[in-house]
Write a structure and sequence with these properties.
The complex is a heterodimer of chains A (854) and B (461). Chain A is mainly alpha-helical. Chain A is 51% helix and 3% strand. Chain B has one domain (12-212, 264-459): Alkaline Phosphatase, subunit A (3-Layer(aba) Sandwich), CATH 3.40.720. The radius of gyration of chain B is 23 Å and the shape is globular. The relative contact order of chain B is 0.21. Classes of the chains: A mainly alpha (854), B alpha/beta (461). At the A-B interface, helix 15, helix 27, helix 28, helix 29 and helix 31 of A face helix 6, helix 8 and helix 9 of B.
């Protein structure tokens, strides 16, 4: 029935097209026109237009009835009229309020007479005198949507002229100052060197500067001291550990599958290292994105080394570590993975939500359902490789890829060895099965023997049969016993052999997730209303039609199309990717994006505060080789970034939220950086990146069975290296706004809640680190007396010396402990630990604020 | 409601004017604490006058057998032994039902204590949910969805309303399960993490030994906690001055004082010693089977009384595929007296009228006998098409049996209530319009009920 609908619909379109091409419309039957004008149009206007016309607030069901084209085209679930089977037309069935369809109008059923008029009208072939050349509501909407700022190509604008021409240090500053001046305001004073050095260290590498580093910078007389520091920090391997984490948030990186079963992903961590390395190497962003979508399909040129090739395969893990429902299977399972892949790639890279188009044309953005399935075809033709093993609730294990030096050989050797073990295991298993059988026989014989003995005892005199039977049973039992002995004797050496073999398994290489094309890439069909059991038209594999790019080759039908998708997503002509990533960088450096809704540049997103600046930065970013480091450098060297946090009543009144960026907003450090800073102060930070992840050792199992402590074993590594097990983030992370690792999040919440204070004041972690910091302080020869120790402690914690008042207060806190007569274990260390505990809990420790002097 | 969750849309005074009763002194102290900074938990105006101001959610993990507890099926007694529509043998309820209270509600002999509360119960016999598998149904009960990671009901409520007492967590979950979604059943998903539940204990461990983390100080030197805090706060106040009254610094100052208050209040609130022997006995604390859930129920009362907005308690083992005859009575013994005590205690403290109490599992069970590994087992399989829950207090009609399943209890047939409808109704009772309680994430406004949910008006008093 659907087929006939489709045929009749296409037939209609062809007919119309033909008519239009001929420049002459089929002459309308006057009786039909009269019917339409008298009985149809008034009803449409009165009963339908409020939801299905230009005047509708929201076009319901994607159906427009104020044009003949719209009426013929139908709504989200397809055509509503079937000229070959008039009676089964959806339109008529809805009007008749039939059982299994949506009833229209929903509130009241039309009079039978009216319905009969509609039936007649449809049977006449929908005579409709309305102008067919005028654009329909949908077409108008599409046109309007395509004019949305973020869907137009970004352009470079020369920086505006400003009154205070001395102020700008760069184009960024001119764009910012022009808007500030337009409101009759002026920016506040520049940040002090002491403020700046702390800000730059935390923003670029996520660690506090040591007192020496502060001194070095503050006293550096060179005019390019800031640029030198910035370059130094961007070159540090710590930079990738800071900025890579932002990307991990966006791609919902995690080491378990989440959802209702939550299996570990022991081999997700190589992706984390890939991201850190990519940031450190300043891999061009377009390349970085392409590798994650289609690393397995990229040619070797120009990066042909074995490491490069392996990195590209690991990069595609991004398609594989999403949440999964391992217990399900078949098409539903595959489609859920595809939904997740479409969601994460489109939001992370393009800043648009395509997910809505799964069930209906996007309500706000120019994304029809067909586009969704064009993308789905690409991902359905892709096999995500995420590992796991077959076990209860896990029905869909996949392969992984071996990585590292000699990976292939080691993997092959390990697999070969498993075969040898299996070779011995098989006869052992067979013996065990025989043994079990014999033991069962013995049990049965024993029972028979008891019964037989009973029968003998109860036998009538002269009845020899029971005794005979008993004899037989005894023999049976003896036979069973000897069988058991025999099988045991045979099984024992086999068992020993297996155990022996298992003892000397060759080492396996590390493994990683990845993705690859399936054997038979194919287009998929639109699932009507998102229901895979209701296939509609075939959607040829492709991209979002609203953003067509001339430089992307057609999809090779023998491939999934990911390679072309990656090229399209990072095309110079795609208006979104550069804007989105530049805005992400801006967001992290200012605490707010130029577009505040960092993951949504669609019509539901927020408008940019400085559109021309964003566009200029985006175009320059592309022209400058998609370099994230150079963009960060450009921004942090602007005068705008280097403003102080000073306030100013006039500015405050006009722009209380500082959208104009007339000052720097004090920013709360992310949880990873608060933790890293505590470890840095305590001297316990293990700066060497760890190998792998503790999750690897846990093996393939359901997280719920694992002791919570084992999920987060003690670690002094930087926070980016802590295991990210879905739903089991470290305590501190849960309290300090670490985002859900099941969801895409480019922007974290920033809250101040008592559970954070309780953590900083009472957790074992902070207490221990305070103790370590105290010992480190007492061991420091540079601080000879208590006052000097207070100074040094504050320099470690805040990158500045205390004021006299603060020093006195600190000494007052310490005095009773240091002078206590009572027995206190490790008195001095304990005293100084209390000071550190106190410092760790301050606002200044976790916010980037102004520092007057170092 | 917009997504700027940190801005309250009413003042504390307005909230107080709305009226509240029954709070202890600790609660009042919390509500009048000098808070100049609005935190995520600051009370917010509901959409309309609420019938309930707080909620206790009693989760019976596994799917209680309605035919043996609250959905009286005379026909099933008669037809036991015959072949049912799913080709298994119909299993007669193993226990007798009698009518209770003025309302004459039918309740099984397994729930003698609850039966005495019949006139307070609003029993919905026509519940339906979308999955008959625990792994999906449990997340759906808690978050409205099993397809996506979504905020839990309690997180939505806390986001929508804040919590009356800033000295206590606004959302507490006691002994949650680690299975089937685990922590995401009380998680915040895309809402700010301040809306996730504070956890007390884990499933399978006695609540007696459970604590809230980081409540007790681990100070290196005894007795200096106050000194440490004072010094921190003096540093903060200086920064506040220096930074032109920066609201974030004020936020840190407030959160620190609140943390101190919390340290004082929580042990005071969750203190068994201040309860009379009569109360402890009422809840069955000390009883062999009732001790654990009795403690949980008393804890729930203590917490809501002191101004916690949402408390969830859990009891596991309601998945009677077999041994129905022994394990169901045991489960009932564990919770029956404590739950009845909770209702009585809330009532006599004047709290029941505006506390919504929910009881139920993720689904219910079949009228037919379970076949396990080819053998007949004395048990029932899952049923998502018809099951029973009840609510009490908080604006629901007591003594009501709403909706019904068919004669045998296969499927809801009259006045069906889908889980989305139940969620919509719960929010409604709390003064929240489920269509307006939204949060923008990834370019779309999300809500607990997605695009579904009708408030079940007929059960509202």
């Amino acid at each position: 029935m659907r087929n006939t609908l489709l045929i009749s619909w296409s037939a209609w379109l062809i007919l119309l097209a033909a008519a239009a091409a001929n420049g002459q419309e089929k002459k309308l039957d006057p009786a039909g026109v009269e019917l339409f004008e008298k009985h149809i149009r008034p009803v449409l206007v009165e009963k339908c237009y409020s939801c299905h016309s230009k005047s509708a607030e929201m076009l319901e069901g994607g159906l427009e009835l104020d044009s003949s084209m719209g009426l013929i085209r139908g709504g989200e679930s397809g055509p509503i009229v079937d000229l070959e089977n008039v009676d089964s037309s959806l339109l008529l069935r809805m009007l008749r309020h039939e059982e299994d369809v949506e009833k229209m109008p929903p509130e009241e059923k039309l009079d039978d007479e009216v319905i009969r008029a509609f039936e007649k009208w449809v049977s006449m072939g929908l005579p409709d005198p309305r102008d067919k050349s005028a654009p329909t509501t949908k077409e108008l909407q599409e046109e309007e949507r395509l004019q949305h700022w973020a869907f137009l190509p970004p352009k470079i604008t020369p920086p505006p002229t400003v009154k205070n021409a001395d102020w700008p240090r760069s184009a960024i500053d001119s764009f910012i100052l022009a808007k500030i001046e337009a409101k009759g305001l002026q920016p506040v004073a520049d940040a002090s060197r002491a403020t700046l050095v702390r800000r730059l260290y935390f923003d670029l590498i996520g660690l506090p500067p040591s007192p020496q580093q502060v001194k070095l910078f503050v006293e550096d007389p060179a005019p390019d001291a800031v640029a030198k520091l910035v370059d130094h920090l961007l070159a540090s391997p710590r930079y990738g550990e800071r900025w890579g984490r932002h990307w991990l948030d966006v791609v919902r990186y995690a080491e378990s599958s989440g959802r209702e079963f939550n299996f570990t992903y022991p081999h997700a961590w190589p992706y984390r290292d890939y991201v850190v390395d990519a940031f450190n190497a300043d891999k061009s962003y377009d390349r970085f994105v392409c590798e994650q979508i289609a690393g397995d399909l990229l040619p070797d040129e120009p990066y042909g080394s074995a490491e490069d090739r392996e990195a590209r395969l690991v990069a595609t893990s991004m398609l594989s570590f999403g949440t999964k429902r391992h217990n399900s299977g078949g098409m539903a399972y595959r489609m859920e993975i595809v939904d997740d892949q479409i969601d994460v790639t489109c939001r992370a890279i393009l800043g648009i939500t395509v997910a809505c188009a799964k069930c209906h044309d996007h309500k706000f953005d120019p994304i029809p359902t067909k586009d969704y399935y064009a993308l789905a075809g690409i991902f359905l033709s892709t096999e995500p490789l995420y590992g796991t093993i077959r076990q209860k609730y896990s029905n869909n294990p996949t392969e992984l890829i071996p990585i590292g030096p000699n990976a292939a050989e080691m993997h092959a050797a390990a697999e070969e060895y498993e075969k040898i073990i299996d070779g011995v295991k098989k006869p052992w298993d067979a013996k065990k099965a025989e043994l079990t059988k014999a033991e069962e026989a013995k049990k049965a014989a024993e029972k028979k023997k008891t019964d037989a003995e009973k029968a003998v005892a109860e036998a009538k005199e002269g009845d020899a049969a029971p005794a005979e039977a008993l004899k037989k049973v005894v023999a049976e039992l003896a036979a069973a016993n000897s069988q058991i002995a025999k099988f045991k004797a045979e099984a024992t050496p086999l068992e020993a052999a297996v155990k022996e073999l298992e003892k000397s398994r060759p080492p396996r290489p590390p493994y990683a997730m990845s993705a690859r094309d399936r054997a038979n890439p194919a287009d998929t069909k639109v699932a009507v209303r998102g229901d895979i059991n209701q296939p509609g038209d075939v959607a040829p594999r492709g991209f979002l039609v609203a953003f067509s790019t001339p430089d992307v080759p057609a999809i090779d039908p023998k491939q999934s199309g990911r390679l072309q998708l990656a090229k399209w997503m990072t095309s110079q002509h795609n208006p979104l990717p550069a804007r989105v990533v530049v805005n992400r960088i801006w967001h992290h450096l200012f605490g707010r994006g130029i577009v505040e809704s960092v993951d949504n540049f669609g019509l539901m997103g927020t408008m940019p505060s400085h559109p021309k600046l964003l566009d200029t930065l985006a175009v320059e970013f592309m022209q400058d080789g998609w370099s994230i480091k150079r963009t960060i450098r450009k921004i942090v060297l602007s005068r705008t970034y280097q403003l102080s946090c000073a306030t100013n009543e006039k500015n405050q009144n006009v722009d209380p939220e500082n959208r104009l960026l007339w000052c720097a907003t004090p920013r709360r450090l992310p949880v990873e950086i608060i933790r890293d800073a505590i470890l840095a102060v305590s001297g316990q930070l293990d700066i060497k990146p760890p190998t792998g992840s503790p999750v690897t050792a846990l093996g393939d199992q359901m997280v719920r069975g694992i002791d919570v402590k084992k999920l987060q074993p003690p670690s002094n590594h930087r926070s980016i290296y802590l295991p990210v097990v879905r739903d089991y983030a470290p305590d501190m992370f849960d309290r300090f706004d670490f985002p859900s690792s099941s969801l895409v999040s480019g922007k974290r919440a920033v809250t101040n809640v008592p559970s954070q204070a309780l953590f900083l004041r009472n957790s074992e972690f902070v207490t221990q680190q305070a103790n370590h910091a105290a010992r480190r302080l007492l061991a420091d020869k540079a601080a000879a007396d208590d006052a000097a120790r207070v100074d040094l402690a504050m320099r470690w914690a805040f990158s500045r010396a205390p004021t006299d008042e603060e020093r006195q207060d600190a000494l007052k806190l310490l005095e009773p402990i240091l002078k206590a007569k009572a027995e206190i274990k490790d008195r001095d260390a304990s005293a100084w630990a209390t000071l550190f505990q106190s410092l760790f809990a301050t606002a200044e420790f976790r916010y980037l604020v102004d520092i007057k002097s170092p | 409601m917009n997504c700027d969750s940190t801005k309250p849309n009413m003042s504390r005074r307005e909230w107080l004017k709305l009226g509240s009763c029954g709070f202890g002194s600790v609660a009042l102290a919390g509500m009048t604490a000098n808070q100049s900074h609005a935190g995520p938990q600051t009370p917010r105006m509901p959409h309309f006058a609420p019938k309930a101001k707080r909620m206790i959610f009693l989760f019976m993990n596994g799917g209680p057998s309605q035919q043996d507890l609250l959905d009286y099926k005379p026909r099933l007694y008669q037809d036991g032994g015959k072949t049912g529509q799913n080709k298994q043998t119909l299993l007669s309820p193993l226990w007798d039902f009698t009518q209770h209270g003025e309302s004459g509600l039918w309740i099984s002999e397994l729930l003698p204590h609850l039966a005495k509360q019949a006139d307070r119960l609003c029993v919905i016999n026509s519940m339906q949910t979308d999955s008959r598998a625990h792994p999906l149904a449990i997340p759906q009960l808690h978050t409205g969805s099993f397809q996506f990671v979504r905020p839990s009901l309690g997180a939505w409520v806390l986001y929508g309303l804040g919590s009356p007492n800033q000295n206590l967590p606004g959302y507490v979950t006691v002994k949650p399960t680690r299975t089937f979604g685990g922590p995401s059943n009380y998680g915040n998903a895309f809402l700010p993490s301040a809306y996730q539940a504070t956890r007390v204990g884990w499933e399978g461990r006695p609540v007696k030994d459970a604590t809230i983390k980081h409540l007790t100080s681990t100070e290196v030197v005894p007795g200096v906690a106050k000194g440490i805090l004072d010094f921190t706060q003096s540093m903060n106040r200086r920064l506040l001055q220096r930074s032109g009254q920066n609201p974030d610094v004020q936020g840190v100052i407030d959160s620190l004082s609140l943390s101190s208050n919390m340290q004082k209040s929580i042990p005071q609130v969750m203190d068994l010693a201040k309860e009379s022997k009569e109360t402890l006995d009422l809840y069955g604390i000390g009883g062999e089977l009732t001790d654990d859930f009795g403690r949980q129920c008393l804890m729930a009362r203590q917490l809501v009384e002191a101004g916690v907005r949402f408390v969830e308690l859990a009891n596991s083992g309601w998945d009677q595929h077999s041994s129905l005859d022994t394990t169901l009575p045991k489960r009932c013994k564990e919770v029956d007296q404590p739950i009845a005590a909770l209702l009585i205690d809330l009532e006599r403290r004047g709290l029941l009228d505006d506390t919504l109490v929910f009881w139920g599992g993720e689904f219910g069970r079949q009228p037919e006998t379970q076949i396990l590994s080819g053998k007949v087992a004395l048990g029932r399989d899952h049923n998502a098409k018809g099951y029973t829950i009840w609510m009490a207090g908080g604006g629901v009609r007591g003594g009501l049996a709403y909706g019904s399943t068919d004669e045998l209890g296969y499927e809801a047939v009259v006045d069906k209530v889908h889980l989305h409808d139940l969620h919509a109704t719960m929010l409604h009772l709390l003064g929240l319009d489920h269509k307006r309680l939204t949060y923008r994430y990834g370019g779309r406004d999300f809500r607990l009920t997605d695009i579904h949910g009708e408030v079940v008006k007929d059960i509202i008093a």
